[in-house]
Amino acid sequence: MELDPFQKDALAEFGNIGAAHAATSLSQMLMSPIEMTVPEVQAIDIANLHNYINNEITAMVVFQIQGEVADGGYVVVSMPRETVIQLTNQMLGTTDADRDINEMDQSAAIEIGNIMISAFLDATAELLGIVMLPSPPALAIDMAHAAFESIVAQVAGDVNDVLIFNTELTSEAPPVYGSIYMLPNAELTQQLFLMLERMMEPLS
After folding, report:
1. Where is the CheC-like protein domain (predicted)?
2. Which of 1, 15, 100, 204 lies in disulfide reach of 165, CB 3.0 to 4.6 Å?
3. Greatest CA separation found in the chain?
């Protein structure tokens, strides 16, 4: 999908509003000030997704988009191992960073993903004037390519484009990185861009 400058600005606004709300919820959970920015938004063809992800061990928390846009596609929080462990340590007040992802980290990843996506969808849906709700989360811990292959196999035929919101979280600890991948079906993609254009009209 080729975005024009107007669409890029609209998507960046969309992502930053959602990220700001997600950061507020995460701050409350971790009891520590956190800021989340979306320095880059990309819209790509799902067939080219493998070119935009690395192949490191990653925790992916997957949600189906429900609400007024029933079966609207999927939204995925992707966090590399270092991010999951750092956030778990921050939650529990521990310091062991040199370890593999364990059951404690898996529970933390689901909780963090759930809070982030609930806030992200709530804020962006309010902005657009529709209801978007996340399904119960599913977690995959795997090499990023392998995890996404499974997701893509499930949505093949319904989803053509992927919106990637690359996020950066900063707090008192060193910054951590992750991404939110939105895989809307074709109908929701059309609705999103139509609503974003209407939202940005007063600014143009």
Report:
1. 6-41, 106-139
2. 15
3. 51
Q: What is the pLDDT of residues 8-61, one digit of tens each?
A: 787 888 888 888 888 888 888 877 788 877 767 888 888 888 888 888 899 999
Please give the helix or strand (H or E) that residue 63 lies within, else none. strand 57-67
By the 8 A CB rule, do 86 and 174 touch? yes
- The number of C-alpha atoms within 13 Å of 166 and in the hemisphere containing its C-beta is 7
Q: How far apart are the first and last CA of the chain?
A: 22
For 2, 171, 180, the CA distances from 77, given in Å and listed in that order, are 23, 19, 5
DSSP state for residue 30 in the 8-state scheme: H
List, for residues 124-181, the tens digit of each pLDDT value: 788 778 888 899 999 999 998 888 888 888 776 778 889 888 887 777 666 677 888 9
